[in-house]
Amino acid sequence: MLLADAAWSFELLREIWLPAVLVAPLLALCGAWALTARRRALRQLFDERFARRAESQVSRLRGGLRVGACAGAALCFAFALLGPTRGWSLREARQKGIDLVVCIDTSRSMLARDLRPDRLTRAKREVQGLLEQLQGNRLALVAFAGDTRDIAPLTRDRSALTRLLEPLTPEDNRQGGTNLAAAIERALALFDGRSGAHEAIVLVTDGEDLSGQGLEAALQAKERGIRTWVVGIGTAAGGKIPLSARDGREGFLADSDGKEVVTQLAGATLERLATSTGGDYLSTEQSPTPLEDLYRLRIQRLEARSLEQGLVRIPHDRYQWFLLPGLALALCAALLHERRTARPAHAAVLLVALVWSAGSGPVAAQESRPAGYAGSSARGLRELVEHVRAGRREEALALSAQLLERRGSAALDENTEAEILYATGHALAAAELPQPALSAFSSARVLAGPGELRLWSSYN
Q: What pLDDT digit, counting tens, does each position of 8-61 carry?
């Protein structure tokens, strides 16, 4: 699959992760909804004046940039996960495997029906089962009777081997009989020896070797380090060889005396041929799937050697081109703060430090209420209330700082201190310092005794 245009195109190695790209727009939508919902919640919970003050402490631009950075990081990570490739290099490939030449008997004796539906069909099924188990190994097909013919050279193309295997019949033979020696010699000719693979011959036959030279040819193969494995097709009881007459009626092959010929599995001969080369023998009487069992339990365990495969094209995975920008955007999103830094006056800074030392709590300040209920006899408290009422914020904050310096002394009891902190909270809220104002109201609530002061401090 290609991305972008021809001038800046990528192929994807892992297209299965393509839905991950949808995470980025989902994050952007969720972030935009969260920013809008936060502003709506502020206006619902607080009055308009305090909501505007709270919103002024948060930068909408930074919030939008943070959401955009998160969405961009997610998009970059998704593209990195897809495995974008651009460019490629050639590399020599080597693969371990075994070269097998399967010689299948197509003589007329393979038409005997002691196996259902007949021996030849059963032999084809055995070879087909072997093809389904091939994993990196090459296989060639040879058909033989009194002569031999190449069906397929060494290949890993299982579909092609299956197509070539199916139409095999005795009618294609140029010479009747069964010549095991010719089959083994033809198999040896198919091994070029240049691949370096472990080589083996598999005979699929009923074993009626009319030439009598099969064992000698197998020993020659052994001298070249090639083992011969044999699969016996048929039964010891044997079966008759069917023939079709010109009139369409079916008969059976007869000898010169007119007796019907019964062909039997020559198991002893085939077993001696296999074991003499270091191979093994298995028949349809011993196993329902003899060729598959031989391959799985014996042949596949041969030492697999490296096969020369030539050059292969290796694509260059450019995931880091997207991963690094994604990490940078994620870092920016983590470091980007939406809240603005306040710049209060010098007197307010001193008071903020004092108020913060008194503790903090999760309360919300609202618009100022008249502070006339505070019936303290302390002169300083009365002056502080007057400054707050008159809107003289700096004077109120400076006086509050002086009054709070008397904490812990007999001149300032807890109730008076609570009233001072309550008035200070209103002054800080008017100065658009919501966080210190919250701390002042919280401290006033803690110190105030039962009554309106505690109630209003909690409400604010």
A: 467 888 888 899 999 999 999 998 998 888 778 767 765 566 566 666 767 788
- Residue 367 pLDDT > 60, yes or no? no
Residue 52 phi, psi dihedral angles, 5° rounding: -65, -40
SS3 call for 299: helix
Instruction: Name the phi and psi angles at 250, rounded to 5.
Output: -100, 135
Half-sphere exposure of 121 (CA within 13 A, CB side): 8
Query: CATH number of 92-312: 3.40.50.410, 3.40.190.10, 3.40.50.2300, 3.40.50.150?
Result: 3.40.50.410
Could you report the per-residue pLDDT of 388-413, keeping only the tens digit for each?
888 887 888 888 787 777 666 656 67
Residues 6+ apart with CB under 8 A from 135: none
414, 387 Cβ separation under 8 angstroms: no
Q: Residue 260: how many CB atoms within 10 A of its CB?
A: 11
- What single DSSP character describes residue 380? H
Domain boundaries, the chain: 2-83+319-335, 92-312, 346-459
Residue with tokens 């005396």, as numbered in its chain: 257
The three-point CA angle 153-155-161 to 5° equals 80
Find out whether 415 and 448 touch, Cβ atoms under 8 Å. Answer: yes
The pairing of strands 84-105 and 10-12 is antiparallel
Cα-trace Rg, the chain:
47
Does residue 180 contact residue 203 with C-beta atoms inside 8 Å? Answer: yes
Q: Report the amino acid identity of residue 43.
A: R
